Amino acid sequence: MSATPISAARVETELRALLGKGVLDSGQTAPLLVDQRGLYRGRPLAVVQPASVAEVAAVLRWAHGHGIGVVPQGGNTGYCGGATPDESGRQLLLLLRGLNRIREVDAENFSLTAEAGCTLAQVQQAAAAVGRLFPLSLGSEHSCQIGGNLATNAGGLNVLRYGMTRDLTLGVEAVLADGRIYEGLNTLRKDNTGYDLTSLLIGSEGTLAVITAAALKLWPATAASATAMIGLRDVPSAIQLLALLQAAASSRLTSFELMPRTAVDLASRYVDGVRDPLTLAHPWYLLCELRSSAAESLDEMLIQALGSDAAQALIAEAALAVGERQRADFWRLRESVPAAQRRAGASLKHDISVPLTAVAGFIDAVDRWVAQEIPDGMLVCYGHAGDGNLHCNVSSRPGVDLQTFRRHEEPLKRFVHDTVASLHGSISAEHGIGRLKVDELQRYAPPVELALMRRIKQALDPSGIMNPGKVL
Ligand code: MLT
Ligand code: ZN
C-alpha cells in the first residue's frame, strides 16, 4: 500500500467534510476497538459511520486516494479479529451500523433486501412479519449484523437444512476499493451471466469490497416443530442417529447439535437458569430439531423415529420438549456453552470441520491427546455435528493459572489442525480467517489456491487498502 503522509488534523477536516457527524469522537469508540474475544486491541486513524451507500463510497474514494487501509465493522461479534484495526494508528475503522434499513420485502418472490447494518434479528423479524422465514440463526443474532454475516459467510444452527449465508443470498451491493459501486442486488433464483461475483464477495471478510446491502432468500414460515434432547454413550452413536433421523424426517431435520458432558456441566454451572433436562448423566448430548412449513405432527414423527429399534440401540435417554418454553430451555443450554466457557476461565478455541465419517475418530484422537498433554484442561468439543463442524475447545480446570494455561495454545492448535488436515477437513469451518488464522491459512491451504486468492485480491484491491492484514 503506498501511503501519502497525511496529518491527523487533515484527516479530521477531510472526513468531516465528507461525513459531518459521521466521524466519531474518541470518547464514543472504545468498545469498537477490541474484538469480541479480547484478543486484539486496535488503534485507528479515525472511526467513521457513514449514513448511506454514497457516503461509504465517498470514504473509500478518499481512503484510496490517500492509500489508507479501511477496516469494515458490523456488530463486532466475530471470533477471529477480522473487524479490528491494527495497532499502527493508520487504519480507518468503517462502521456499517448507520446503514440499517430493510429496503424491500417481497413475500411473493420469497426475497428480502436489507442493508448491511441491520441486525440478523431485524432481518428475521422482517421476514416473519410477512409470514416468511429467514433461516440464518446464531447465538449473537440480536447484535451481529447481516453485513458481517455475509462478509464471514456465517453458519450457525440451521446449516444442515438451509446451508450457510452464501446459500441464503441472491445478490449483494458492495463498494469497491476505489469507491465504485457494484450493483449486484438482483433477486433472481437463476442467473448464469458470467462469473458469480456475489459468491466471491461473500466470505471475503472485507478484503475485496465493503458489502452495503444484500438480497436474501426467504422460506415459508415454520408451522410445526419438534425438539429433543438425547443422551448418548458415544459419538459414533450420534453419527449413526443422524442418518436414521435424516431417513425418517428428510429435510425436516434442521438442527443436529452435539455437546459433551463437560459442556452441559459448564453451562449448568455458569449460566443462570440453565439445567440438564435429562435424569441421568451421559457422556454425550444431542439437541435435534425438526421443522416444517406444513401443519403436521412432528412430535409424533420424532417419537417414532427415536423409538425405532435401530435408534433405541443408540439412545441412552431422550426428552422431547413439551411446549415453546421447554424448547427454549433446551436451546438455551446449547447456546450458553460459549458464555459458560468464557466465565469458567481460559478457553483455547478451534472451529473445524471434517467429513461425517471422521467426526468420531477426530474427537477420540483429540480427547486422548488432551488427556495426556493438558492435565490442567478439559476438552469441550461441541457444535454442529450434522455439518461435521465442531468447536473443539479446551477449557482450563478450576483454579488453574490462566497465563500458565496459555502455554498449551500453540501445541494444541498444531495437533488439532494437523489432525484436521490429515482427515481432509477445514481449519475454519464457519468463523473465517480474520487476523487470527492468517498463518494457519498459509500453512494448510494448497499453494495454487493461495496463488489464485492473491491474484483475485490484486485484481479487486490493487493498492491493498481493503482490510489489510486479514485473510491473506
Ligand atoms: C457456537 O456454535 O456456539 C459458536 O460458533 C461459538 C463458539 O465457537 O464457541
Ligand atoms: Zn458455531
How would you portray this structure in words?
The chain is of the alpha+beta class. The chain is 35% helix and 21% strand. The protein contains 17 helices and 18 strands. A five-stranded antiparallel sheet has the order 4-5-9-7-8. A four-stranded antiparallel sheet has the order 12-13-11-14, with helices on both faces. Helix 7 (235-249) packs across helix 9 (298-307), helix 8 (261-270) packs across helix 12 (337-344) and helix 13 packs antiparallel against helix 15 (409-422). Zinc ion binds at residues 383-384, 391, 430.
Question: How would you summarize this macromolecular structure in one to three sentences?
Answer:
This protein is α+β, with helices and mostly antiparallel strands and 472 residues long. The protein has helices spanning 8-19, 53-66, 120-128, 146-151, 159-162, 197-201, 235-249, 261-270, 298-307, 309-312, 323-335, 337-344, 359-373, 402-405, 409-422, 438-444, 447-460, and strands spanning 46-48, 70-73, 92-95, 102-106, 111-115, 132-133, 169-176, 181-184, 209-217, 219-220, 224-232, 253-260, 284-292, 315-320, 347-348, 351-353, 377-384, 389-396. The model has no long low-confidence stretch (mean pLDDT 97).
Give keywords.
472 residues, alpha+beta, binds zinc ion, four-stranded antiparallel beta sheet
Tell me about the largest β-sheet. Answer: 5 strands, antiparallel
Mean pLDDT score: 97
Helix/strand class: alpha+beta
Distance between the ends: 14 Å
The hetero compounds bound to this protein are: D-malate, zinc ion
SS elements, strand count: 18
- Tell me the overall shape: globular
**Oligomeric composition of the shown chains:** single chain
Q: How big is the Rg?
A: 23 Å
Helix content: 25-40%
> Count of helices?
17
Strand order of the largest sheet: 4-5-9-7-8
Low-confidence stretches: none
Give the strand content: 15-25%
